[in-house]
């Protein structure tokens, strides 16, 4: 009876154990499947933090088999130069992407197009010279963007239009000479801006950005030093302490520009100037064409027009006066010669018959007296 009774008990125990084992095995298998989506060759993958670390491997291309669930992708210290536009396709869970210390020079406009959850993008120490306006338009959650140590000479207007959440932005050590205020206005959450170590030209082109910087500081934003490189008088000075009065001349320039802008003959001047210079290189080496052109453009609207008007009016008046003088002179001459002739004829007649009128009058006078 014991044997009979212990039989089913053992069986149920075994069944329970079997079920537990199979459940654990299944769980392990599931975990393996979850973690397995292939860690790219020689990268380190952390299945808990969903971090893929492929840094310092001398990679020249982004591994193609990145797990779609990757949250952090580290590709710093590699040899990436040109990336295809699909390098980060489908990585919509990616939050942190580090591409620092590579040789990237250009980024396809849609390379970050799928990274809708991206919050941090590191592009420090590459060779990026230009950025596409639409490069960051699909990552509205971006909070940190590092573009320092690159070759950027200018930022396309609208580059930051889709980044209302950006908190920190670094543009240190580039080749920027000026910045456009409108590019920075969409950055409503910006708290830290680094712009140091650029060849800033503190002239009229930077004036509006100075206004923006003042507003940014007033709002509580932190900004590092923007030291002028040009003009000479301001070299080494921080743009923020240069008084606004230094830029009063800009509005005068703008006025001149706008009045010159009404006159269209700008382009023909620049187009025409090389043409006459080429046909007569040996004949007359006149240093006119290129240098005289912009001056003409600038003074044409006011003084030259006025001068031409004055010349025309003066010419017309002079002409009329001259004609009148000639007419008067001719009339005078003719009158004088006629009178002279008449007098001569009179004198010729006088000795023969005397003055007939005078005689008559004398006679009349005599008769009246008589
Ligand atoms: C991205 O996902 C789509 C569909 O999910 C797939 O057809 C495509 O091949 C994937 N692209 C890459 C580069 O993995
Ligand atoms: C993006 O992030 C949010 C919050 O972290 C998350 O709920 C969402 O699933 C993520 N989207 C993708 C495609 O992973
Ligand atoms: C920039 O990257 C190069 C290699 O990519 C490295 O040799 C250099 O030290 C880096 N410079 C800085 C300032 O990080
Ligand atoms: C005036 O116009 C010239 C060219 O048309 C331009 O280079 C310059 O920046 C303008 N100056 C101002 C103050 O707008």
TrEMBL record:
Domain LRRCT: 198-251
Membrane topology according to the record: Single-pass type I membrane protein
Gene Ontology BP annotations: axonogenesis; positive regulation of synapse assembly
Chain positions covered by the region annotation Disordered: 261-297, 351-370
Domain LRRNT: 38-72
Source organism superkingdom: Eukaryota
Subcellular location: Membrane
Signal peptide positions on this chain: 1-35
Membrane-traversing stretches: 307-340
Major localization class: membrane
Cellular component aspect of the GO annotation: membrane
Protein keywords: Glycoprotein, Leucine-rich repeat, Membrane, Repeat, Signal, Transmembrane, Transmembrane helix
InterPro entries: Cys-rich_flank_reg_C (IPR000483), Leu-rich_rpt (IPR001611), Leu-rich_rpt_typical-subtyp (IPR003591), LRR_dom_sf (IPR032675), LRRNT (IPR000372)
Protein family (similarity comment): Belongs to the SLITRK family.
Name recorded for this polypeptide: Leucine-rich repeat and transmembrane domain-containing protein 2
Organism listed in the record: Ursus maritimus (Polar bear)
Phylogenetic lineage: Eukaryota, Metazoa, Chordata, Craniata, Vertebrata
